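Subject: Sanity check before I submit

Could someone independently write out the structure tokens for this chain? I want to compare against mine line by line before I put it in a report. The sequence has 379 residues.
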Amino acid sequence: MKLLLALALALALPLLAAAEPFVPKDDAAAVQRLPYRMDAAERARRAALARDPAQLPLALDAARAALDRARALGDPRELGAAQAALAPWWARADAPPEAVLLRARVKQARHDFDAAQAELQSLLQRGDLPAALRAQALLDAAAIHQLRGELAEARALCEPLRSLAPLPASACLAELASLSGDAPAAAMKLAQLSPGRITPPWLALMRAELAERRGDPAAAALYRLALTGADEVYTRAALADWLLDHDQPAEALALATGEADALLLRRVIALHRLGREAAAPTARLRDALAAVDRREPGKHAREQARFALDVTGDAREALRLARLNWALQREPADAVLLLRAARAAGRDGEATRQELANFVRQRGWQDVRLAALDRSLAS
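---
Independent answer below. Compare away.
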């Protein structure tokens, strides 16, 4: 269950598609270098599935492994690999519950939140659903509601987890409390969940994000603790953002390595902040963002807005994209982005700033980043 909570949180990261395909000039040309080597076990699994795709246990293992790689590497092709593994059950209403759960996670990772939530709700309506799968479905459904700012709905799903999975339930409810005006008590609760033992990466990540919202400098150490346990793109990007926000672009640049486009964005921003040459990575990122927008219009507006705001300096476009993103997902990071874009847009962003102020007050959010960016939100 610990890893399932990490999965529900980490798959909120926008996964950007690669640029448009091209035809190599000769057979010896390298089309792309993969970020990892396929081991013998994975090759054997794929070969077995190719011979008989209907092997459910093998297909589930393959889909889980692909989702793990997508989370760790930020490679959107792995979502296609997960879907391919589930192909015999992808469109079946009577698919086994394990396949439905993984189907929902693929759709969630692609930011198709309505479809993912529908899958999970159908799963939770099954009377014979095993307790472990029910707990997983409740947790994943709650994570989607939280991501969309639907805190009451998320809490209603976390409550039944108390008897099924006490630790994730406690963490889930503490996280929701932190977003409902009780951040200090939530921070204390999360810290108490792993006394005297190694903090699991997902819990360190939750504590890091809460510490950042509270302005606690311990956030950086908690992000690094989470990375030590699970070096994943989402956590690496979150720490890079913290470093950028605290005027440490050189450290962010050193951290934002790897093939994931989410990290490429932070790398480009850091290069611009440092005044260093960034033409090649900026062009690559622009192509990637254009490609994903053609393929999934509006689904990755958070990263597009960051590009417009922090790289090209197009405030009006950044505001348009940040509002588009806000319609899709409403987490604190999305509010910070929207407020930054609204302030950069000047008078064009005044209405957005007021709407956001009302939203934050109604929910009791406690976030120093919002207060520092617009003092009207701190009143």
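---
OP: Matches mine. For the report I'm noting this point. The longest helix spans residues 56-73.
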